From TrEMBL:
Enzyme class: hydrolase
Family matches, as SUPFAM superfamilies: beta-lactamase/transpeptidase-like
Originating gene: dacB
Transmembrane segments: none
Residues in the signal sequence: 1-24
Keyword annotations from UniProtKB, A to Z: Carboxypeptidase, Hydrolase, Protease, Signal
Originating species: Actinoplanes flavus
Lineage: Bacteria, Bacillati, Actinomycetota, Actinomycetes, Micromonosporales
InterPro entries linked to this entry: Beta-lactam/transpept-like (IPR012338), Peptidase_S13 (IPR000667)
Protein name as annotated: D-alanyl-D-alanine carboxypeptidase/D-alanyl-D-alanine-endopeptidase
Amino acid sequence: MRRAHVLVAAVVAVLLGVPAPVAASGGPGRTLTGALDRILARPELAGATIAVDVRDAAGAVVYQRNPGLRVLPASNQKLLTAAAALEVLGPGHRFRTTVRACGGDLHLRGEGDPTLTVARFDRLAAAVAQRRKLFSGRLVVDDTWFDRVPLGLDWSWEDESFGYTAAVSALTFAANDRFDTGAVEIRYRGAAGRRPSVTVWPPTRSVRVVNRAVTGRGDSVSAVRAHGGRTVTVTGSVAPGRSGTTLVSVPDPAVTAAGVFRAALRRHGVTVAGRTVRGPSPGTARALATRVSAPLREILRPFLKFSHNGIAEILVKAMGRAATPARPGSWPTGLAAATAALGRLGVDTRLLTMGDGSGLSRRNWVTARQLTTLLTAARRRPWFPAFRAALPVAGAADPLVGGTLSHRMRGTAAAGHVRAKTGTLTGVNALSGYVTTRDGRLLTFAALINGALAGAGPTLDRVAVALAESTGPPGGQSSGRKAAAMGATVSQPRVR
């Protein structure tokens, strides 16, 4: 009877032009379609806009709800940026930072490297020290590889001080090995009987800290930089002996980077007598040292695993520079280059609006179908292994593997079998990527929810778990062979 019921449902679906139900685990009469419908009918989603598209390895529809509706993607925008950057720049693209000398001046020229930590500036300074120890002139900061529009035109002012909304510059710095760019770490520690200690890393004069935090209970410390200024006010409470870190953006990453470099020069016995100024490096300047970043295929991991907005916007401006080499990289030229690349990947760009590369902008509009089209096309590209490896893995405890999904879907069928990009913005939740089902099939999915009154992340996790628990239709062809034929890596069927 069940088989007859499924066959009748399939015939009706074909006649009506809707996706046929796909069988899922969970008992007789239950289907994946029914399971997903029930998840998306939960009361907390009343009035929300829901867009879902699920495809099998061959691109056939498994489940859909409003797949052509344009919605805000939040950080799912980074899927578009990553794929476009791999197309425009190439997986082997490396960022260069060069130190040159001209007369008595020392020039520091950046080309957008988001991985310049204090240690890497130190190695660059050591290389300079091997060539020359005294410069009678100035330290000249050259950030002309990109334009000097530091912030997205429609980013919220109230977010300006946070590390995830840091200014974008061709010469920047990373505060840590996770490559948080354009922001400093405010490090604090509770001390009994007195105010918590507060330090800034890397040390810089770019910000001035006012410490109003108290030693008390828990950890509620926050740090906010005044709009347009450099004063950072630290407030809240922290228990004695407890420590923590929060990120604060700096007003001008290039100036802060120059300060980090100047300090490194001093450690290696190099003197630059003059002050720090900004200007282009002359063509006659002599190269003293060069720092070359890891290739883009490796930078993708921290970018997508940790959802770094700064790296996203640097990639956009780098694409703009690559598309129009005679002009500084910018958001307009970079987003145009990205849109063209996505079109070549088969994405219908007529319905696509890109306001930035990270998803902070509320001028980003995308459909679930565009995302699954991109994710399907990516599997046929030579750079796909790097793209896939950079996606967060559900439930993986190691943050370098699980990323933003490290603490999600643990202990479920999705753990270790969902690789997907998260997206979170006020009123927006998204989750899109790949899932290996219980019987080893590979599915591509995009699920986006706008306007839910409460965070919809748990709902999206339920969607991913339902996909991971599903099995193919009775008598259907195993899609493991289909996926392998398309060059995908498919997990073996699970043993329960």
